[in-house]
Amino acid sequence: MVFTPLPLVDNFLQNYHIGHVLAVLLIGSVVGTLPLGSRKIVAINTTLFGVLFLATPESLLGETPFMFRFVGIALLVIAPILFVTARE
């Protein structure tokens, strides 16, 4: 019998939802844009993820979709402040 790792991967991934994936992508993209030194790029990135958190259907966000909705609203409030206060 041949060992296939797919059931192990499937059991690991069943605990996560698209909201978790979006949160990890947000953190990774903000860390990736920090070396550029531009707050405007970080603000645009934050706005994009705020819209993504709000536009994602609730059925894909897991057991607590309201938490990810609040994150989206918070990002959409913070992003314009970052953009206006940026110099570059």
Automatic annotation (TrEMBL):
Residue span(s) of domain DUF8006: 4-88
**UniProt keyword Membrane present:** yes
Which keywords appear in this protein's UniProt record, sorted alphabetically?
Answer: Membrane, Transmembrane, Transmembrane helix
The answer, when asked if Membrane is one of the entry's keywords, is: yes
Taxon lineage: Archaea, Methanobacteriati, Methanobacteriota, Stenosarchaea group, Halobacteria
According to UniProt, the name of this protein is DUF8006 domain-containing protein
InterPro entries given in the database record: DUF8006
- The transmembrane segments are 16-34, 41-60, 66-86
Top-level taxon in the UniProt lineage: Archaea
